[in-house]
Design a protein that fits this description.
alpha/beta, Aspartate Aminotransferase, domain 1, Aspartate Aminotransferase, domain 2, 2 domains, seven-stranded mixed β-sheet, binds ligand C6P
Length: 386
């Protein structure tokens, strides 16, 4: 069997249709869209199509802004630092609320802002690795400027109650940002139904290219740019437009929305098949209730087996998984999500994340189940602590 890729929360295969759509912009239609000659102007219609696809995919209003960025890390930095410059620095408000399981590009930016004098509330997650709207309500004060809560967690796949939190923030006059990187293409993201003010995404998480992302900004909201420079994006995000990336991201968004029903049925069926089989191994813990998770993710802790060792066995058999965020893969720290849900030290290094995509097949799932089960038996047999 060829290699099996079950690390789709780290990044995804670009859809072949996306690849084909991007190719002309590398060599044939390579003009800078801000140039006045035909090389520049000929790409305008394609950029408009791509942007329309993004607006439609998010069900955004024409009056809302969607800024193209280089990735979700940039989008998240733009929101948090923009709000800091616009509202917090020297203003009447000085408080941000976030959660203990945000991606490092939110968590570390918040920490940086705390070093600049911002008061930070980091809400812990409950045993389901989730944060309730009530917890946010209790943390709000008259000085809160922004709440930043992810739509879905990258390690566990747990969905946060963003609709409820967004409505609460709207009622209280507090800005609400959500990192929706792991929600796009997995569950519907409808920005007319959910009143978020800012939303971040990265194209490579939904079968688009790397190096391009977006930031949704609700109509009328002012946000200082992170990147100053030329007049691209109306001066709100400077830098020559990544035309191939934008075209690829637009099509990837359209395809992601077209495949939502497939994700909810077929990807979910395969994830559940895998999860049920892994639960039968015994003495394992799956984090987050199944009905509260995106359809493609299972995060499982296997008692007595180091996540790294299991990952190594899987990799030898050609199966790609992870112990958590790709960007923390070199850390020797206990998994932050397992720590956050209060797993004891015996479980702290045992987590494995398996994340499927619409390209995952049943044969791959069955091979993974068999390999995973055999690897656990082997590793438990040689474990001093099991
Ligand atoms: N998470 C993971 O293995 P960038 O790298 O900027 O495209 O995306 C950052 C990012 C932001 N928010 C969430 C919720 C994410 O999951 C990620 C990327 C990968 O979980 C790589 S660290």
């Amino acid at each position: 069997m060829e290699r099996i890729y079950l690390d789709n929360n780290a990044t995804t295969l670009a859809d072949p249709k996306v690849k084909a759509a991007m190719e002309p912009y590398l060599c044939d239609r390579y003009g800078n869209p801000n140039s006045l000659h035909s090389f520049g102007t000929e790409v305008h219609p394609d950029l408009r199509t791509a942007m329309n696809r993004l607006y439609r995919g998010l069900n955004a209003d024409d009056e809302d802004d969607i800024l193209v960025t280089s990735c979700a890390t940039e989008s998240n930095n733009t929101v948090l630092k923009g709000v800091f410059f616009d509202l917090l620095r020297g203003g009447e408000k000085d408080h941000i609320i976030t959660t203990s399981v945000e991606h490092p590009c939110v968590a570390n930016t918040c920490r940086f802002l705390a070093g600049q004098g911002v008061k930070l509330t980091v809400l812990p997650v409950d045993k389901d690795a989730c944060v309730s709207a009530d917890a946010v309500r209790e943390a709000l004060t008259d000085r809160t400027a922004l709440v930043s809560v992810m739509w879905a967690n990258n390690e566990t796949g747990v969905l946060f109650p963003v609709a409820e939190i967004a409505r609460l923030c709207r009622e209280r006059g507090v800005l609400f940002h959500t990192d929706a990187v792991q929600a796009i293409g997995k569950v519907p993201v409808d920005l007319r139904a959910v009143p978020v003010d800012f939303l971040s995404l990265s194209a490579h998480k939904f079968h688009g290219p790397k190096g391009v992302g977006a930031l949704f900004v609700r109509r009328g909201l002012k946000l200082s740019p992170l990147l100053h420079g030329g007049e691209q994006m109306g001066g709100r995000r400077a830098g020559t437009l990544n035309v191939a990336g934008i075209v690829g991201m637009g099509l990837a968004m359209e395809l992601a929305v077209d495949h939502l029903a497939f994700e909810d049925t077929e990807v979910r069926r395969l994830r559940d098949r895998l999860e049920d089989a892994l639960l039968r191994i015994g003495d394992v813990l799956v984090v987050g209730r199944r009905e509260l998770r995106v359809p493609n993710t299972v995060f499982i802790s296997v008692r007595g087996v180091e996540g790294e060792a299991l990952l190594w066995d899987l990799n030898k058999a050609g199966i790609a998984a992870s112990t958590g965020s790709a960007c923390a893969s070199e850390s020797l720290e206990a998994n932050p999500v397992l720590k956050a849900i209060g797993a004891g030290p015996e479980l702290a290094h045992t987590g494995i994340r398996l994340s499927l995509s619409r390209f995952t097949t049943e044969a791959e799932i069955d091979f993974t189940t068999k390999t995973f089960t055999e690897a656990v038996a082997r590793l438990r047999a040689i474990s001093a602590s099991y």
